[in-house]
Specification:
The chain is an alpha/beta fold. The radius of gyration is 23 Å and the shape is globular. It has 13 helices and 21 strands. The strands form five sheets. Strands 1, 2, 3, 4, 5, 6 and 16 form a seven-stranded mixed β-sheet that branches. It has helices spanning about 20-25, 40-45, 50-65, 80-105, 160-165, 185-195, 215-225, 315-330, 360-365, 380-385, 415-425, 430-435, 445-455; strands at about 5-10, 30-35, 110, 115-120, 120-125, 130-140, 145, 175-180, 200-205, 230-235, 235-240, 245-250, 255-260, 260-265, 270, 300-305, 345, 355, 370-375, 390-400, 405-410. Helix 1 packs parallel to helix 8 (about 315-330), helix 3 (about 50-65) crosses helix 4 (about 80-105) and helix 3 packs across helix 6 (about 185-195). Helix content is about 30%, strand content about 25%.
């Protein structure tokens, strides 16, 4: 084997790529990762979950102190220092990834390059200094996603999550007034964390609910828990942003203006398809990549994982999908299929909101006779201790079998609680099984078993 022949080539080096790459390299196979960033971990570490949650953690601590009646927190946080700490966390993780990569020796290479699919086994790539063509037994498409840019006049006057969370970001000072275009999870996360830090925030969403596309009852529960000081304009179509950060929008056919000091564009993300994917017939009629539950595509030698699939754009989902691809490649057949119903998701707003599996509306649409139980957080010792009583745990199950099929948690520590429920669903547990778990006291987890015990 020479420098142009590999067992696996990954297009991308983020969560959809490197778990499979490492797995195969550890078995002695030769792997090449191609990524235009030239570093591992993709968008999550570059501008997404890790840096944004580092800032959010600071906002949560500050908010928590202000929530307690016995603290006085009149001095605002030093946002520049928060950003500097965020940068240090990102840099530390990049160093750790470099060490992991180096530990595998010459079995794996990472090249800063832009890749193009030529055929089911061949990839061309270009770097700043060279262009090469390489071949592999298998190719893994994991090129991630990018920020969606809608056709809004003056969009260049907006900032995006990249400007807030990249290493050494362009935004290092908090504005007095922030306008957020988009009421999805990215927009609401920034809105709530910056509001907690003292920013006057207004969110503009063109749909008739926040978190468009999500279960309406869940979205309403989240919306009701948002701080009263956050402005929300639903059914508001933003048409222009001028160089003074004035937002022009239309609501019920009536034009209006909003004066801001900074405008955040948060209208979602879209999959980044590798060059050559369409020519190989890997896309459907709508231009989306066709991917099976084991990461398979229309070509037996080409797999896909992560945001590129367009399903669950979550780092842990990408990792799970990547590992499934590795197992399927090593087995020579599909032995591992990812069930999206077992992968939890959390919106890191204030309050937190998380879900896994199916909601009531999903189950009704599938014709499943449904049972649901709930426990409000205002009865839990943990939420009383933290003075955060808002929210609930709600479980959804099959009325005939009693099997747990879905859940949501809105409120304190939702992201922690949903993991337990995801495990229960993955293991095929019933609501009665959940009721028998001795959730620790005094933690918010007690609401899970308490909700289940209302049924049994």
């Amino acid at each position: 084997m020479n420098d142009y022949e590999y067992d696996l080539i990954t297009i991308g080096a983020g969560g959809g790529a490197y778990p499979a790459a490492f797995q195969l390299a550890r078995t002695g196979q030769r792997v090449l990762m191609l990524d235009p960033k030239g570093v591992m971990s993709g968008n999550c570490l570059a501008e997404g979950c890790v840096p944004s949650k580092t800032i959010r953690e600071g906002a949560e601590l500050y908010r928590g102190i202000r929530t307690m009646p016995y603290f006085r927190a009149e001095t605002p946080p030093d946002y520049r220092s928060m950003v500097a700490f965020k940068d240090s966390v990102q840099q530390l993780r990049y160093q750790q990834h470099d060490q992991e990569l180096a530990s595998l020796g010459d079995r794996i290479r990472l090249i800063d390059g832009i890749a193009t699919l030529l055929d089911p086994h061949t990839v061309a790539f270009e770097t700043k200094s060279e262009a090469k063509t390489v071949t592999a037994k298998y190719i893994l498409l994991a090129s991630g996603s990018d920020i969606s840019m809608p056709p809004i006049k003056g969009i260049e006057h907006c900032v995006t999550s990249r400007d807030l969370f990249a290493v050494t970001p362009t935004v290092t000072e908090l504005p007095a007034r922030l306008a957020v275009i988009g009421g999805g999870y990215i927009g609401l996360e920034v809105a709530t964390m910056w509001h907690a830090l003292g920013v006057d925030v207004t969110v503009f969403e063109v749909a008739d609910q926040l978190l468009p596309g999500m279960d309406p009852d869940f979205a309403e529960l989240v919306a009701k828990g948002l701080a009263q000081g956050i402005g929300v304009e639903l059914g508001a179509e933003v048409t222009e942003v001028d160089d003074r950060h004035r937002v022009k929008y239309s609501k019920l056919g009536k034009p209006s203006f909003f004066e801001a000091d900074l405008v955040l564009l948060a209208t979602g993300r879209h999959p980044v398809l590798p060059l050559g994917a369409e020519a190989l017939g890997l896309l459907d009629e709508r231009g989306r990549l066709i991917v099976g539950p084991g990461g398979t595509t229309r070509e037996q030698s080409i797999f896909a994982a992560g945001d590129i699939t367009g399903t669950q754009m979550l780092f842990h989902a990408a990792t799970r999908e990547s590992l499934a691809v590795a197992r399927n490649i090593l087995a020579g057949r599909t032995v591992d299929r990812v069930d999206p119903q077992t992968i939890p998701a959390t919106i890191f707003t204030f309050p937190e909101a998380a879900w896994v599996g199916s909601t009531r509306a999903d189950l009704i649409n599938r014709g499943i006779e449904t049972v649901e139980v709930a426990a409000p957080f205002d009865h839990e010792a943990r939420t009383q201790i933290l003075n955060e009583p808002y929210g609930e745990v709600r479980l959804f199950g099959d009325a005939r079998s009693g099997r747990l099929l879905g859940a949501w948690v809105v409120g304190e520590e939702a992201g922690q609680l949903i993991g337990e429920l995801a495990t229960a669903i993955a293991l095929g547990a019933t609501i009665a099984d959940v009721a028998s778990i001795a959730d620790q006291h005094p933690l918010a987890h007690e609401a899970i078993s308490r909700a289940a015990r209302t049924l049994v």
